[in-house]
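Holo prediction. Input below; ligand is SN-glycerol-3-phosphate.
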Amino acid sequence: MKFFIDTADLDEIKDLASTGLLDGVTTNPSLIAKSGREFIPLIKEICKVVSGPVSAEVAATDYATMRKEADVLRKIADHVAIKVPMTPDGLKVCKELSDDGTMVNVTLCFSAAQAILAAKAGATFISPFVGRLDDISSDGLQLISDIVRIYENYDYFDTQVLVASIRNPLHIIDAAKMGAHVITSPPSVIRQLYKHPLTDIGLAAFVKDWEKTGQKIL
Ligand code: G3P
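Structure of the complex:
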């Protein structure tokens, strides 16, 4: 399973990249706004830190402008994945860019029907929003299970399921059980994955017992 980080905070990205566990980055207009940074220079900087896919989202919603914005964004680096909305115009852009060898991440997916369309449009990634479905009492993880199963039925669907809008570690564990290819998670949830109270208790006991031996390794 690949791990992407869902943030535009460069310090967080550098911190997680240093663990060697980071496979990519996803951003969106809300995260860019939160960062307070200029969009294009920021994406350039992120691309220098991370060699895997870096999602940069178009801002327009009409075909012609999205297409032009995508051309600007994909010039930043070969590993920029253009993020387009799950709309007819967005999928039109997706098909053209995919045919041209550019990675595309189709975002704001809330149904299996939408995921089928994105795969047919040649999307590299489909981003179903698990947390936002849970927020409205719909089963976000059921959608992941459905999409993974549907894609498995067709060898010619190369689209990777990128689980987005993650709220907690269980979303990641369950997505992994279902065989989702990628998760994109806020930094806080990735940090939670390391944690278990028995790890902390066990480590404290080992440290204490080692002190009793009076020995040193270095
Ligand atoms: O980047 C898309 C997605 O991960 C957004 O998540 O928390 O705003 O629902 P959230």
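Strands lie at 2-6, 24-26, 54-57, 80-85, 104-109, 125-128, 160-163, 182-185. That is the main takeaway for now.
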